[in-house]
Automatic annotation (TrEMBL):
Organism whose genome encodes this protein: Aeromonas veronii
Top-level EC class: hydrolase
Molecular function via GO: GTP binding; GTPase activity
Stored HAMAP family: GTPase_RsgA
InterPro entries on file: G_CP_dom, P-loop_NTPase, Ribosome_biogen_GTPase_RsgA, RsgA_GTPase_dom
Superkingdom of this protein's organism: Bacteria
Protein name: Small ribosomal subunit biogenesis GTPase RsgA
Length: 254
């Protein structure tokens, strides 16, 4: 059993809302959030954007990691590279990795050295497999993709902290189906989409919902190609699910 020798002041806290118990911390004092996605299960920009909002909210540097790229043929890889280019243009770091072929692993190791990092993402994207590849001999339990649902199976049930002999720490967090953000206000979520910031305050009406409102500066930027239509769609989906979750929580308390 371990012995706690000291408790450091908490900063850079990554949190998530709990349906019954308010906001819970996932990890603290971390330098970067590694947002792990994969081509299997299907690459989800919605999940990536949710984690980017969380990272922007707490001002922790994110890195987008696409795993299992060995499963892509040339056509599929070109399509996903096009999707990832949206994030590169926003100055987010993007890394393509394969535990099978070894692609990108050395670069990933370099980015983790001497930093406290956390792997986040859905179940089945290969977070535990990446941990095993980075630390041979560790033998972290890994899971498989369900043939029925196409979704990953939970193998990591609690966050685990691993130390790199060469320097640095890695937290492997449990996989989730959807990362909730309903503890944030709508205006804060809007601000956390970094490409929106130049247009905020430019709408015709102060209470603009950025949907079909006349004179919406964000909608005009989307129509002009200055803002990704996919990111804009994900933004509204986040707001919708946030409202649904809050309503469900209120109903559960009645």
């Amino acid at each position: 059993a371990g012995v706690i020798e000291a408790v450091h002041p908490r900063h850079s806290v990554l949190t998530r809302p709990d349906f019954y118990d308010g906001v819970k911390p996932i990890a603290a004092n971390i330098d970067q959030i590694i947002i792990v996605s994969a081509v299997m299960p299907e690459f989800s920009t919605n999940i990536v954007d949710r984690y980017l909002v969380a990272a922007e909210d707490v001002e922790i540097r994110p890195l987008i990691l696409l795993n299992k790229v060995d499963m892509l043929d040339d056509v599929a890889r070109a399509r996903i590279e096009s999707q990832l280019e949206t994030y590169r243009k926003l100055n987010y770091e993007v890394l393509l990795v394969s535990c099978e072929s070894g692609e990108g692993l050395d670069e990933l190791k370099a980015k983790l050295t001497d930093k406290i990092s956390i792997f986040v993402g859905q179940s089945g994207v290969g977070k535990s497999s990446l941990t095993n590849a980075l630390m041979p001999g560790l033998d972290v339990l890994t899971g498989e993709i369900s043939e029925n649902s196409g979704l990953g199976q939970h193998t990591t049930t609690t966050a685990r902290l691993y130390h790199f002999p060469s320097g640095g720490d890695l937290i492997d967090s449990p996989g989730i189906r959807e990362f909730a953000l309903w503890h944030l206000e709508a205006d804060r979520i809007t601000w956390c989409f970094v490409e929106f910031r130049d247009y905020l305050g430019g709408c015709k009406f102060r209470d603009c919902t950025h949907k079909d409102d006349p004179g919406c500066a964000l909608r005009a930027a989307v129509d002009a190609g200055a803002i990704s239509a996919d990111r804009f769609h994900n933004y509204h989906r986040i707001l919708e699910t946030m409202q649904e979750a809050r309503h469900g929580r209120q109903q559960a308390r009645l």
